[in-house]
Amino acid sequence: MEAVKIKEDLYWVGAIDWNVRNFHGYSTLRGTTYNSYLLVDEKITLFDTVKYGFEEEMLSRIRNIVNPEKINYLVVNHIEPDHAGGFLKVVEIIKPEKIFITKKGKEGLEKYFHRSDFPFEEAVTEKEIRIGKRTIKFIETPMIHWPDSMISYIPEEKILISQDAFGAHYATSNRFDDEVDYCALIQESAKYYANIVLPYSPRVQNLLKTIKDLGFEIKIICPDHGVVWRKNTGEIIKLYEKWSNYIADPKAVIIYDTMWKSTEKMAYAIMEGIVKENVEARIFKLSVSDITDVMTEVMLAKGLVLGSPTLNNGLMPTVASFVHYMKGLRPRNKIGAAFGSYGWSGESVKLLNEILNEIKAEVVHEGIKIKFAPDRETLKQCEELGKIVAKKIKNSL
Ligand code: FEO
Fold first, then answer.
1. Residue 113 pLDDT more than 90?
2. According to the 3-state scheme, what is the secondary structure of the chain?
3. Which domains does the chain have, with CATH numbers?
4. Which percentage of the chain shows pLDDT scores above 70?
5. What is the pTM of this model?
6. What are the tens digits of pLDDT across the range 124-142?
7. Distance between Cα 83 and ligand 1 center (Å)
8. 83 in ligand 1 pocket by Cβ < 6 Å?
9. How sure is the predictor about 5, in pLDDT bands with cuts at 50, 70 and 90?
10. Catalytic residue numbers, as ranges
11. pLDDT of 397 over the 90 cut
């Protein structure tokens, strides 16, 4: 398999996983890539390895350029198994003189592989190494995505090798942002941020500030998933600024499930109210929706309206599962409201309001709960709730 030249002496040598559809629960409908980069200088340096099972694909691309045994340095930016699962096999073949990694990364790999005889050299923020004509500067980025994470910057080339940050689960035969369906790329980048990076948004803001403070000019971003950003580099950085500051679009999502269609009728009446105020709205019924796609819409929308019937004094399982997932991803800065039907006890609206409070949403209505089935009057109340949400969204602009 071929290596792909990014710039003089820098090559993509990763692997394409066309068929993965479930990435620890994240739906990867377009597959993904595990990216590695080879920089040929006096010290030949490999940045990251690949998921276990994809080592041969990576090594065959490296062999296009150099004999893998000639590689001097390995930089491990992140130890999650989608990047370091192939570490052991690759290290046994290339036998690097040095492996640059953070302290947490070293501890993690020693535990993953139950060995401590690797030639690790600790990388810390602002440490730099000279590899010939070029320099590599490291910045630790704990929790973007794991405690071990770091990024590598090559100042002479203005290239950032960013591991998970700025990535997307997007398998394509093209390697650059200007060669693929750009709408699909932005959609996958947003989905990746919403489902992987969102909880660590304050750290993303710190990282963007650190990059500015250090004066790193970035022309090309090489992430560990998806394509290399060489044309729209500024745009993806701007999107990370927007998403990490919890800035959403002036629209609403209504997320619900239903047993006998009463809660569903309420959802559609709420949407009517939102749309009548000229605010865009989207509805997601959880029994037929993918939660990772729904989470993307949550991140992108200012308004968040949650609905569930009461079942066994609680939420429907699909709603309980989704709000648990959503809460862990820590969306912020939402305008929220809740609704649901019930037969006798009616706890669902209270429980959904608690969730909205936990994610620090501005709850703009006490919520609507309707016994058994809505009638014309109660559907009107739902429509009014939608209008209140929509007006709040418009006022937040
Ligand atoms: Fe792509 Fe956090 O690993």
1. yes
2. CCCEEEECCEEECCEEECCCCEECCEECCCCEEECCEEECCCCCEEECCCCCCCHHHHHHHHHCCCCHHHCCEEECCCCCHHHHCCHHHHHHHHCCCEEEECHHHHHHHHHHHCCCCCCEEECCCCCEEECCCCEEEEEECCCCCCCCCEEEEECCCCEEEEECCCCCCCCCCCCEHHHCCHHHHHHHHHHHHHHHHHHHHHHHHHHHHHHHHCCCCCCEEEECCCCEECCCHHHHHHHHHHHHCCCCEEEEEEEECCCCCHHHHHHHHHHHHHHHCCCEEEEEEHHHCCHHHHHHHHHHEEEEEEECCEECCEECHHHHHHHHHHHHCCCCCCEEEEEEEECCCCCHHHHHHHHHHHCCCEECCCCEEEECCCCHHHHHHHHHHHHHHHHHHHHCC
3. 4-230 (3.60.15.10), 252-392 (3.40.50.360)
4. 100
5. 0.97
6. 998 999 999 999 999 999 9
7. 7
8. yes
9. very high
10. 24, 78, 80, 82, 145, 164, 192, 225
11. no
Q: What is the mean pLDDT of residues 341-354?
A: 97
Closest protein CA for atom 1 of ligand 1: 164
Task: Please indicate whether residue 145, judged by its CB atom, sits closer than 6 Å to ligand 1.
Answer: yes
What's the confidence (pLDDT) of residue 126? 86
